[in-house]
Amino acid sequence: MKLGLNTGYWGSGPPPGAEESIRIAEDLGFDSIWTAEAYGSDCLTPLAWWGAKTSRIKLGTAIAQLSARTPAATAMATMTMDHLSGGRFILGIGASGPQVVEGWYGQPYNKPLERTREYIQIIRKIIAREEPVEFHGKQFDMPYPGGMGLGKPLKSTIHPLRKDIPIYLAAEGPKNVALAAEICDGWLPLFFSPKIDKFYRDALNEGFAKPGARASSATFEVASLVPVIVAADVDAAANFVRPMLALYVGGMGAKGANFHYDAVARLGYEAECAHIQD
């Protein structure tokens, strides 16, 4: 088992003590640190800022949202971060949900699995830097076929430090978890519980069994988020977690289209989830 530190979302400003916590985590031999974004602070800038003061610990995004950047912009940031960190960067990405994608980024939330697959394919082509990038999928078209008609395939001006930078996928539903196992190097689960371990293992195994699957159970990484509150009083500790659960179950998605709600409901808390959402 490896240990990581997730700095979480910002509230009205940078989380107090984050820089010191990261320094201590590296001194203690932690494997990785992670930053997040939703519709406030971005995840890459703090990771670069804090990561500049580290030398060994891996730097990961949990998560960079697909709709926040084009595949090319994410690939550029990935290669840049990997160079600056000396090959310590992990790209954690996820599709988010329709409420954030359509409400905040002003983009349609259609066919997220297909969009994720194409997005990662483009990123890998850019990072590999074997040829000018041309991609014609159902979700992405490079070069853009319209406009002034002057677009042409381009190759990154920088050479990647690593031609194969790890990509982890945030996933909660079974199809998305299977996709992570098929095309990614790791999985970022949210609200994972050992009580439904088989549910997720079956989904992962479905992905590993796909023709041309990138990983196997022996090489695949699972970076599970586990909230830990140190306190003498259990109820007082739980009160730190409850607002986060309420936000995800009740507010981080519209009624009937909230994947976080579904993940917690699958654990046997459907009535509680409905009450929180109401």
Features:
eight-stranded parallel beta sheet, two-stranded antiparallel ribbon, 278 residues
Quick description:
The protein is α/β, with parallel strands linked by helices. It is built from 9 helices and 10 strands. Strand 1 (4-6), helix 1 (18-27) and strand 2 (32-35) form a beta-alpha-beta unit.
Characterize the structure shown:
- α8 crosses α9.
- The protein is α/β, with parallel strands linked by helices.
- It contains nine helices and ten strands.
- It is globular, with a radius of gyration of 19 Å.
**Arithmetic mean pLDDT:** 96
Quaternary state reads: single chain
State the distance separating the first and last CA atoms.
38 Å
Please give the largest β-sheet.
8 strands, parallel
Please count the beta strands (DSSP E, at least 2 residues each). Answer: 10
Shape: globular
Instruction: Please give the count of helices.
Output: 9
| Helix-strand sequence | EHEHEEHEHHEEEHEHEHH
Strand content: 5-15%
Unreliable runs: none
Whole-number radius of gyration? 19 Å
Given the helix and strand composition, which structural class is it?
alpha/beta
Fraction of residues in H or I helices: 40-55%
Topology readout:
Layout: E1 4-6, H1 18-27, E2 32-35, H2 44-51, E3 58-61, E4 64-65, H3 71-85, E5 89-94, H4 98-103, H5 112-128, E6 135-136, E7 141-142, E8 167-170, H6 174-183, E9 186-188, H7 197-208, E10 221-222, H8 234-251, H9 259-277
Parallel strand pairs: 1-2, 2-3, 3-5, 4-5, 5-8, 8-9, 9-10
Antiparallel strand pairs: 6-7
Helix pairs in contact: 3-5, 6-7, 8-9
